[in-house]
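Methods, example record. To illustrate the input and output format used throughout this study, we show the complete record for Ribosomal RNA small subunit methyltransferase G. The sequence lines were provided to the predictor; the line carrying structure tokens was produced by it.
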Amino acid sequence: MSRATLQTRLDQGLAALGQTLAEDVRARLVDYVELLARWNAAYNLTAVRDPQDMVTRHLLDSLAIAPFVTGTTLADVGSGAGLPGLVLAIIAPERAVTLIDTNGKKSRFQREAVRSLRLDNVEVIHARVEQVEGTFDCVTARAFASLGDMLTWGGHLLAANGRWLAMKGRRPDDELTALPDGFRLEREHEVTVPGLDAERRLLVLARSDAP
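The corresponding predicted structure is encoded as:
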């Protein structure tokens, strides 16, 4: 797969999202996909094998929620191959991003991505989310667990006025009716990912006493 082909797909997706990124940022996003594809061949980090599909299913899927990210600190829970955390860190180097995952090989890949992509704003934590300390303005989670489990295990990470961005497919009505005490659904957005024919929904959760 040529780098130019990946760059073209990324640029077309950004245009469809109405987003503009500097040339060096776009190049770094392609660097990430190429690194992921190389590691994936040996370590099975993602079920997506084709680098072009990685641009759509990983880069553009992550970039689609970028307009909803707020604050100066972000924790990506169950980050896996660094999604969406690494992508969000690449496009916003001023934001401090913490990647959290229990899988050793995925944490090793995250560290290699941080090193090779020179991401000074990213910290990798290999641990269960329950064990992680600190609070963050924004918490992201992509296909990590049910909403109830996410918030039970990691709700302590959300700052008083923070926002939890849960990336889902179909609207999980049963999960929304079983949110843990202290949390509420603030709003939700239907998200369109260019080139992906699948339903995507972003649920924005907040503390019940947050303004």
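Annotations derived from this record:
Residues 114 and 120 are 7 Å apart (CA to CA).
The chain has a mean pLDDT of 96.
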